[in-house]
Amino acid sequence: MTKGIKIVTIGGGSSYTPELVEGFIKRYESLPVSELWLVDIPEGEEKLNIVGGLAKRMIKEAGLPIKVHLTLNRREALKDADFVTTQFRVGLLEARAKDERIPLKYGVIGQETNGPGGLFKGLRTIPVILDIIRDMEELCPNAWLINFTNPAGMVTEAVLRYSNWRKVIGLCNVPVGMKMGIAAQLGVEPERVHIDFAGLNHMIYGLDIYLDGELYTDKYINLITSEDESSGTMQNIVDLKWEPEFIKALKAIPCPYHRYYYKTDEMFDEEMKAAETVGTRAEVVQKLEKELFELYQDESLTIKPPQLEKRGGAYYSDAACNLIDSIYNDRKDIQPVNTMNNGAIASIPNDSAVEINCVITKDGPKPIAIGDLPVATRGLVQQIKSFERVAAEAAVTGDYQTALLAMTINPLVPSDTIAKEILDEMLEAHKEHLPQFN
Ligand code: G6P
């Protein structure tokens, strides 16, 4: 790639874009991006112009020859792209707020990537991703698709199962967030910590932790089960402490999202409390976004403002830019990403997506086989994988019974009858963004 790298970001008007721009600026020497195309839809045009303006100022301030293009024409942008990153939200934050509020009425967790909310986010998103892939097949057949759009695991599963596109990687900031959190707790540089990650997106475990190459799992478990230490979370997930004896028995580090499964009742109560006071997470984020976009409009702002750190996506740009950098430079370093299992986890189908440590090469991620997950974690992971597969099928076919099946087998939904009630209300609430069901 002597011409310089062409990056296309779909959902470019997102408030997260300055993260990405900062990442490209920091790595320019090893990752010479020549063109950054920020793409959005007409409803996002105002945000695209504001965030695009900031992106241009950041690059000018850095004195780099990266050309930023803002467009509503996805096909124009995709032509000859090298990397396409996706970070869009079908139905915007209004749809997320519905995903979070409706299940609560039925006594069920309302979360954007877990339970009924995760199902509906998948139903809205998967057809759009498959559409983008059809454009990529035609316009940039050699590009890598780096998908950030949630639910990232289910989306990767759908791409692997319902398209022939194989240059796809699902990416999430949870593993890097866990690593940074652990390093901070231990008071060491992150490079000194290594974690054996395996599982699924938002359902990933740290199976072992190493400090300076020495096994540190037991010591770390002792630390987080001691009284005053946090067991790690992110901005969008309340930091409820684990039962010490449970974590000692599990012998693995759960991710922040595991609280929805191992602390379902307490998390439900927290969500209810929030919904009745400050609002659901989407409603909180709507306010935050307003503030952020006001800042972004300030012509004197030429850096990513620190307020962006109030969002859950911390280290998002590091994850994305490190991945792109490692593919471009064939670094063969280890990064946790969503990719085809190919036998890396024995109890998950070979052709399914898993989130696991991979060696990142110019030909993409090569998953590092772990044998199998510990027996205590295996069942839940398999159940979520079944849910993701059935949900992806429902998203592609628009079949009501398949959607009901997905809803019912989700471990956060207590019965088939409640599943049906939630499904019916959510299908109606989201019908504008679910043409396949109409
Ligand atoms: C975490 C998750 C992301 C998610 C984000 C939500 O970082 O890993 O998948 O998108 O939180 O953050 P928000 O600020 O939108 O609630």
Automatic annotation (TrEMBL):
> By its UniProt entry, which Pfam families does this protein fall under?
Glyco_hydro_4, Glyco_hydro_4C
Q: Where does Mn(2+) bind?
A: C172, H202
Which residues are involved in binding substrate?
A: R96, N150
Q: Which InterPro entries match?
A: GlycHydrolase_4_CS, Glyco_hydro_4, Glyco_hydro_4_C, Lactate_DH/Glyco_Ohase_4_C, NAD(P)-bd_dom_sf
Kindly give the SUPFAM superfamilies that the UniProt entry links to this protein: LDH C-terminal domain-like, NAD(P)-binding Rossmann-fold domains
Its needed co-factors are: NAD(+)
| E.C. number(s) listed in UniProt | 3.2.1.86
Q: Which GO terms describe its biological process?
A: carbohydrate metabolic process
User: Locate the Glycosyl hydrolase family 4 C-terminal domain: which residues?
Assistant: 197-413
What family does this chain come from, according to its entry? Belongs to the glycosyl hydrolase 4 family.
Protein name as it appears in the record:
6-phospho-beta-glucosidase
What species was this sequence derived from?
Answer: Amphibacillus xylanus (strain ATCC 51415 / DSM 6626 / JCM 7361 / LMG 17667 / NBRC 15112 / Ep01)
Q: What is the lineage of its organism?
A: Bacteria, Bacillati, Bacillota, Bacilli, Bacillales
State the gene name recorded for this protein: licH
